[in-house]
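Dear colleagues,

As part of the handover before I leave the project, I'm documenting each prediction I ran so the next person doesn't have to rerun anything. This entry is a single chain, and its sequence is reproduced below.
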Amino acid sequence: MITHNKILIMSRREPHPAPLCRHHPILPQLNGVFVLNKPTGPTSAQCLGLFKRLGQKKIGHAGTLDPLATGVLIVLLGQATKLSQWLLESGGKTYSGIIRLGIETDTWDILGKVLCESSPAHISTSQLASGIEAWQGMREQEIPAYSAAKHNGQPLYKLARKGKDMPRKVRTIEVSRAELLHVALPFVHFRVSCGSGSYVRSLAHSLGKRLGCGAALFRLTREYSHPFGLDEACTLPDLRHDPELLARRLRPLGDALPGWTRIQVDARGASDARNGRPVRHDPGAPANGNAILYDGDAPLALARLSETGDSWTIIRGLWN
């Protein structure tokens, strides 16, 4: 049987940062992508603390995970921080997790304040399967009050902590796959694949509403965040134990955008790109709509193919 004691139960209002090593090498600023297996407890931002202590001043991440969640967190270092917009636009994600039926909280997960409880004993496996499969028909979802989404420039979680009344906010979503894995009432195991920006907490909450018994997200693991899987991820304890893993496990910037064409440019093309001018493209050469331009081994710019197909328009420089 699963009990609350088997996971870290912490206050969303008092985040618990991941402990950092005292002695660590100061590495030069790196450029690339590091796939982290985020632990339960710290926020996504707090997980970057160790990287900063290792000398990485230019740093970010793509796709926030809640404190409760574990799994794939894409850490962007150096010039890779400029990829965040495109990673989020095209990044499908897959999660597995557990929902606790018969409970409703203010945060829609097990870390929140319990608002009401009821027995889910009457809920059948077929009802659960139908309810979870119904996620695939959803086109929008309500955004949790405790989230980083903003209202009038303020994060919703800050307003919620102050007890402010907030309008109901919704977000367009796409759920490509949803399945029931196992039932051991009041716990329900599931897997879901969805687009960026989807709140799995909201999916759990909607299931509780549909079944009429309430539900809260109990555990969540992000198994895949396009284009990286959990099997490629490194843990924070491993990185603390061996900081050199940061350089050894760093992925090239281009690995984050596998569907983009790689284009080598000549000296003139490199000069045009650095000055924001269109870069000539041979219309007979294979290419899709987006490309990473390279000057030798160095990524130079992100570019989009013109309507005429004879040039690349620079959309983001990647040089230092």
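The chain has nine helices and 20 strands. Confidence is low (pLDDT under 50) at residues 1-21.

All the best with the project,
I.
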